[in-house]
Amino acid sequence: MNNNALISFDKSLQKNPCQLQAFSLPSNLIYYISKNPLFFSVKVYQKLIQTCKYFYLKKRIIVINKLESSQNPFIWEAYEKLNGKEYIKLDIRNLSFDLWLIGELNVCRQIPAGFVNLLLQKVVKCDITSIYLYNYMLNFNEFLVLTESKKIKHLALEEIIVRDNDGKVVPYEDILQRVPNVSYCA
């Protein structure tokens, strides 16, 4: 995958809209599927958009398996495969699609507070299983969004301060209550 694969995929669909499809399913079912892609598993959604771009055009959502911060807080590195070496750079200020996060999230470079929140504005579903946060001040509401799926198995918080809306530090016990399936915690 080259560095602009997802972005060029999205732009090519904007230039070449899909043709009218003759689905073998009733139109009300197709309408429901196109309006509610997050109801399905990530595998089903990926198959849908691979087989018919109509579903992608209705709800522009890209599945990201691994997302990592970069030195520029607006640019994030998105990996298609969890242990893949090739990635694309996403500028979260200019995304024309939303993100469905699975796999892991790494905020491993010092970025200013609030940039995870900027990223989360583009996230429509967060099914991550691993969170690695280093040297970051996290808002508790951001943490709740990241862990809402309750699928977190690996949690690494190093030099992290989690604060509530009043600016008070959230106790570690409250953080661990939000991640009941954690098998690795650092």
Task: Summarize the structure in words.
- This protein has one domain (5-185).
- The chain has 7 helices and 7 strands, in the order H-H-H-H-E-E-E-E-H-E-H-E-H-E.
- It has helices at residues 5-15, 27-35, 42-51, 53-58, 115-120, 140-146, 172-177; strands spanning 61-69, 75-79, 87-91, 98-107, 123-139, 154-163, 184-185.
- It has a 7-stranded mixed β-sheet.
- Helix 7 links the parallel strand 6 and strand 7.
- The radius of gyration is 18 Å and the shape is elongated.
Which tags fit this structure?
7 strands, alpha/beta, 186 residues, 7-stranded mixed sheet
Q: Which helices and strands, and how do they pair?
A:
Elements: H1 5-15, H2 27-35, H3 42-51, H4 53-58, E1 61-69, E2 75-79, E3 87-91, E4 98-107, H5 115-120, E5 123-139, H6 140-146, E6 154-163, H7 172-177, E7 184-185
Parallel strand pairs: 1-4, 4-5, 5-6, 6-7
Antiparallel strand pairs: 1-2, 2-3
